[in-house]
Amino acid sequence: MSTIGRPVNYAAREAKIERIINGAIQCFVKKGFHGAGMAEISRAAKVSQASLYQYFSSKSELILEIAKRYFSRDMNALKRIVDADDFQATLEKEAHLTGDRVGTVMYLEILAESSRNSEIKEIVINSSAELYDLSCSMFKKLQDSDVIDRHLTPEQITHFIFAYIDGVSCQIATTDTKYSPDMLRLFIQALLRPSS
To answer: How far does CA 194 lie from the centroid of its chain?
Structure first.
């Protein structure tokens, strides 16, 4: 009998991980991190609990993976803005993520969990600092190229945009407020007026 194991089917493995992550997100959005259990997550993901535990040894590990993915998504969006020919149009386009209620609730859950979980807190602090630094350097570059005015510092611009997105996120998660791309566009145009 051969001692060689079956080759790993990476595509099937990744598809199952995605199902687990998506099932967990559904449960966490409905009940929060502490209200949803692993049995419920396995049912939502349509995998056995044994299979779930093969990929994630605990709910904490699953929450950590979701947090990493959310901040990675935000960093990739910011990099697309930095690399874009028309940064303002791309900024408006990428900020549509703010209007995603499921994503917004998950983001707020991650922030709340960071006050209780040191590993999540480290991800939040490090990722936020990285996003802030990249954003500041982008606005400095745009000011140095005379694309936008210098009436605000890059740090102030970044602060106001992040505060706007966080505020809209809270409203979307807690009220019936609808995300308005037009309001974001007006805000960005006022904040990032062209250099005269």
So the answer is: 29
